[in-house]
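step 4 of 6: structure.
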Amino acid sequence: MADKTTIVVHSGDMDKIYSALIIANGALSMGMEASLYFTFWGLERLIKGKLEKGALSRMHMFGLGKWMIQRRMRAANVASLEKLLQDFKELDGKIIACEMTMQIMGIKKEDLRQDLIDEYGAIGAYIQEARESNMTLFI
Amino acid sequence: MTDIRVDVRGETCPVPLVETRKAFRKASPGDTVEVVGTHPASRKEIPMALKALGLKLVDIQEEESVWKIRIGV
């Protein structure tokens, strides 16, 4: 079994996308392989211009909560989602986009940031990644 | 042999770890990577990553709240 993590990114909430990318980048930095399987609301964040558009999973309060959290994140010098995603790719992280989600939500390949996506797959792609992983999460 | 310096002072989780890893990938065998930072958890976590990556911890220094980790690639 490879020293690898596979994460299903189901949520498109800003804080959960942060969790997924921080864990994945931590794994790559500590010598593991990492794959992210973007599905449902998570996949929406890979639509061009939508990465930072997710709501806060709790206390969103019509955007006020998100605005407050983002202010505090800036004060704490937390990296942007864009930087985390670029770092993930630079460290050879793999991104899989769920084809069924694309079909259901009417998302076309050209709507997505294709430069980041390594593979378009279905459940078999996730299972194949997960069975080679010693750590798999659903976020 | 080159010294590669990574300055992550003021950066927080996971940036010090990620930038250190990026520096290892640019380094050649025999090089030394020196990481300077202030994020307390990374001071403990960077040495943990070294074992898995097969790299050698040369030295850790800490003064006030700034730490400096030297790693042999």
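step 5 of 6: annotate
 - The helical segments of chain B are 15-26, 40-53.
 - Chain B touches chain A at residues 10-15, 17-18, 20-22, 25, 45, 48-49, 52-53 (CB under 8 Å).
step 6 of 6: archive
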